[in-house]
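To: structure subgroup
Subject: Chain for Friday's discussion

All,

I'm putting the inputs and outputs inline so they're searchable in the archive.
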Amino acid sequence: TSYILGGGAINAIGHKWGKRPHDNLATNNQWLALLVAGEGLHNNHHALTTSSRMAMAKGEIDPGWWAIRSLVALRLATVRQLSRTAVPVST
């Protein structure tokens, strides 16, 4: 049950506090991304929902992507879609 509550808390933070580089209601929180393996880059996730990689901009850190890359290198996983081409909101 605690993992369900934790997921809800991460989702709530990911929609409330942080930057919005893409045109959606989620936010990017780099500190949260470090804590929960990339899920804190929630705005990026909503911009490209099927991408395996959450980091899109220079300086964004995505530990989950590092894990995926390691599994691919060990031939234990395959990346079905990789995209970094979401268009940021103009400033």
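Points worth raising on Friday:
Residues 51 and 82 are 5 Å apart (CA to CA).
Residues 2-16 form the longest helix (15 residues).

D.
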